[in-house]
Amino acid sequence: MIEQINSPASQQRELDTAKAMIRLYCKTLHRGSVICPECEGLSDYVESRMTTCRLGNEKPNCLQCQSHCYQSAKRLHLTHIMRWTAPKFSWRSPLQVLKFKLDCLRRGESVDTSRASQL
Known about the structure:
The chain has 4 helices and no strands.
């Protein structure tokens, strides 16, 4: 199998997927048309951590990463959001989910999303 280095495009898709899942969670549970300040703060935190990852272009998917860069409380909150949103997100944005899974397969990573607890 050809191993491919993580491209900036796939990193951006991973970030867009995480932010879209946070927006879906917020709009559904917090019942607002605009994302709430708490969820906006988490979204900004995820973006800052992904863009400043010490692994750079060699960065695996965050679910597969061995050295987590999220604070434990934020990681727990994001894990909760991802687990709640995953089944709903698959129906609402199937193309985005497919692209995310294809990026994982290109890197030789498993696409089992049940590992979200280890984010």
